[in-house]
Amino acid sequence: MNRKHRTKNPNNNKLMLAFHFLRALARINKSTSTVSSYQRSCIIKRAAYASMAHAAGPRRAWSRALLYRLRRGSSRLHALPAIRRTRSFSHKRVKVASPKLREPNQADVLRRLVPGGEAMELSSLLKETAHYIQCLSAQVWLMQNVVGSITS
Amino acid sequence: MDPPSLVSQVPVPEMWQFPPVGVPPSGPRVGRMVPGPEVAAVGNRDASLDESTVTEQSGGSRGRRKRRDSASEDESSKLASTSSGNDLTDSEVKRLKVIKSTNETSNLKMEAEASSGICNKTMNQNPPPTEPAKQDYIHVRARRGQATDSHSLAERARREKISERMKILQDLVPGCNKVIGKASVLDEIINYIQALQRQVEFLSMKLEAVNSRINAGIEGFPTKDFGAQTYDTASSLAFSTQPAREYGQGSATEWLHMQVGGAFERVT
């Protein structure tokens, strides 16, 4: 049923995002009462990313990569740890830098930021980035609303 | 940097007004150009002249203009290649040259707008157009003096695709329209993504704090804050009703209520 609703129209994407995230929040609220607050915030963050990826569906490369990363249980999800990591393996792996891009570094930074974008060619990377930005901003919007509705 | 103020400036709901990125209205037609009426009419000079003037006026829709231009270029290059080998009269050849020169002017302008420098390089190489491009399914311009072998055609198509997607991204990222240059656009995009990711992190921390405070309050005063409701139903309602109402989608909202309720009962 979820799958059917997911692919119907783009607005449903947002709805599915809300559904997944709220369900995950309810689950977290139920289960984890003994762990520390930092761990709980990490769990909530993971739930946010997982619900985002679930709502985006399995067709997107970034959502697949994100889910894989979450399932593997790597704690370093995003921004700053990712930069640290890639500095370590940038000498191992030679990227195919497109010749016409003046700064190949920026494309590489983008590749690191978008999950699953490491092996991507530039045009598909840009496509994935656009969708990822949409979903991420929707997630931020949703979380802000949830926080606002709880505090008010 | 203050994350909540940053994102509250961002017009997030408007982003969803854009079509889904997978199927942009003009995006997937890069590879296979369907020859429209203007392609059929491109043989005579007036039509192509009209086209160039029209496209010069429409500064806003660059993708469309590129498509049109390249359609006419394809046609002209094909004609040129046939004219080199076949039996066209002199006047026809001259006319073709005129067409191509008008195309050249508009192309030069377009090239100045395109941020990649390879177009100039391939033009300076100036190889003779030996073979006609495969105009059936590849929609790439092959101007006079441009390389028409399959590699450069594919490269040109790829570049066009990239710039189109960059344009989509520029529309998505706020404040990115004023930025000129591919590098700075990419910078903006990177900054925006990082800001959003930090925002998610911050909000999850905030959510946790708020949540634990509510939990503590409920444990302290079990029935005072939420009336007769128990803690579980109260928290689920607090999560589910408010955002769902903001989506405002009629039956879909009811469906969400039903789903959240059912899922919650399953969880409990």
UniProtKB/TrEMBL annotation, chain A:
Which superkingdom?
A: Eukaryota
Query: What region holds the IBH1-like N-terminal domain?
Result: 20-73
Single GO biological process annotation from the record: regulation of DNA-templated transcription
Signal peptide location in the record?
none
Q: Which residues cross the membrane?
A: none
- Which UniProt keywords are listed? Transcription, Transcription regulation
Pfam families from the UniProt entry: IBH1_N (PF26576)
Q: PANTHER family recorded for this chain?
A: TRANSCRIPTION FACTOR IBH1 (PTHR33124:SF40), TRANSCRIPTION FACTOR IBH1-LIKE 1 (PTHR33124)
**Name this protein carries in UniProt:** Transcription factor IBH1
Name its species.
Answer: Cocos nucifera (Coconut palm)
TrEMBL record, chain B:
Biased amino acid composition, Low complexity: 28-37
The annotated region (Disordered) lies at: 1-89
Q: Which UniProt keywords apply?
A: Nucleus, Transcription, Transcription regulation
Ranges of biased composition (kind: Polar residues): 78-88
**Similarity comment text for this entry:** Belongs to the bHLH protein family.
Example GO molecular function: protein dimerization activity
Q: Name one GO cellular component term.
A: nucleus
Q: What PROSITE patterns does the record tag this protein with? A: BHLH
Q: Does the keyword Cell membrane apply?
A: no
Its taxonomic placement starts with:
Eukaryota, Viridiplantae, Streptophyta, Embryophyta, Tracheophyta
Instruction: Report domain BHLH positions.
Output: 146-196
Protein name in the entry: Transcription factor BHLH089
Write out the annotated subcellular location.
Answer: Nucleus
InterPro entries assigned: bHLH_dom, bHLH_ZIP_TF, HLH_DNA-bd_sf
